[in-house]
Amino acid sequence: MRIAVALETRTGETRVALVPELVGKLTGLGYVVVVEPGAGAGALHDDEEYVAAGAEVLEEPWLDADVVVSVNPLDASVVRRLRAGTATVSFLPVNQSLDLVADLRDCDVTSFAMELVPRISRAQSMDALSSQALVSGYRCAIVAAGLLRRFFPLNMTAAGTVPPAQVVVLGAGVAGLQAIATSKRLGAVVKAYDVRAAAAEEIRSMGAIAIELELETLEGTGGYAREMTEDRAARQRDLLAPYIADADALITTAAVPGRSAPLLVTAEMVEQMKPGSVVVDLAAESGGNVEGAQPGKVVRVGHAQVWGGANVPGQMPGPASRLYAQNVVNLVTLMTRSGGEGDGEALFAPDFDDEIVAGSCVTHGGAIRHEPTRAALE
Ligand code: NAD
């Protein structure tokens, strides 16, 4: 069976769904791997590397593929040219892709969404949300350190002592914890806040100070946060304002699944920050945690430079692609049965009774399997 690696067409995308280093994992299972020319260029992998690793390089490789892997969803024009029964594995933000999901259903494509892989222990190696959030969190801390015109660490020198930078991180999920860890490694004093009760212990385990506010915690389902009421959001902003005014660098990573990012910091709060301070908003693309942050831009608000994230994992395309590709290979491996008869050929045969397969499947057999999306389209 054939697995195609698609060239990403989304503007600014640098990642690729399979890196040459991992081609052997799929050919070893018995797949033929076919890569679209230039697919790895943004992540600095040329076509020759894929060929050397055992793949073929072909125009429009998805035309006779059994499985097509990509980072972003395929274009509708490509979906309409797939053979019935082809499977796709990619990020597929269903809420924002209803027309595409309808196309996938109508073209009898079996589609799997990486962000729907259940976050259970057995699926950790397939968890692309976590792998990409790890890259984003690291990148946010490095951007903050780069924009700040002063040291992160304490420096004791013959010429005197330079105090460490004060970093505040809001949202301590996978990205936030990585931003904390990276800022700590660079020597900053880090304080962090998250609405989930469990986060305080995780913040402390990274060597940071957990900001504790006199507010109820907001646990939702599946270990995620719940949305705030406007009243609680206003009280949270009031209580956080002094911490933000004290910070040299503020990094925000807060998100609530299926919702716009919560507004945690108003422009007025940023205006209270010191001259030279920096704000890094990872959530700028999904609504923004910080008022005024613009994706892909650095804007000035008061004395602060405010950096808005845009495809932040794509700013480190090598490691982001490597980790994403490993997630994809692990998911494809779960859905592969030996060809039998000792012929060494792989059989892509998802077991829909498996919780990971069922949970990540969006369309199959001409129907929408993901209930909330089916309801939204009916
Ligand atoms: P996420 O990207 O949805 O959110 C990022 C963080 O923002 C979360 O920690 C959330 O609590 C926080 N947040 C939301 N609203 C906020 C607000 N108003 N103020 C401050 N912070 C706010 O979450 P994520 O990083 O994908 O993961 C969240 C949780 O899931 C974590 O507990 C993580 O450890 C857990 N997780 C479990 C697994 C697994 O078991 N396999 C895998 C990944 C993550």
From TrEMBL:
Residues 145-308 form the Alanine dehydrogenase/pyridine nucleotide transhydrogenase NAD(H)-binding domain. The keyword Nucleotide-binding applies. InterPro entries: AlaDH/PNT_N, AlaDH/PNT_NAD(H)-bd. Keywords: NAD, NADP, Nucleotide-binding, Translocase. GO terms for molecular function: NADP binding; proton-translocating NAD(P)+ transhydrogenase activity. CDD domains: Rubrum_tdh. It catalyses: NAD(+) + NADPH + H(+)(in) = NADH + NADP(+) + H(+)(out). GO terms for biological process: NADPH regeneration. One of its GO terms (cellular component) is plasma membrane. Its EC number is 7.1.1.1. The keyword Signal does not apply. Residues 4-136 form the Alanine dehydrogenase/pyridine nucleotide transhydrogenase N-terminal domain. The transhydrogenation between NADH and NADP is coupled to respiration and ATP hydrolysis and functions as a proton pump across the membrane. This is proton-translocating NAD(P)(+) transhydrogenase. It comes from Nocardioides panacis. The lineage of its organism: Bacteria, Bacillati, Actinomycetota, Actinomycetes, Propionibacteriales.
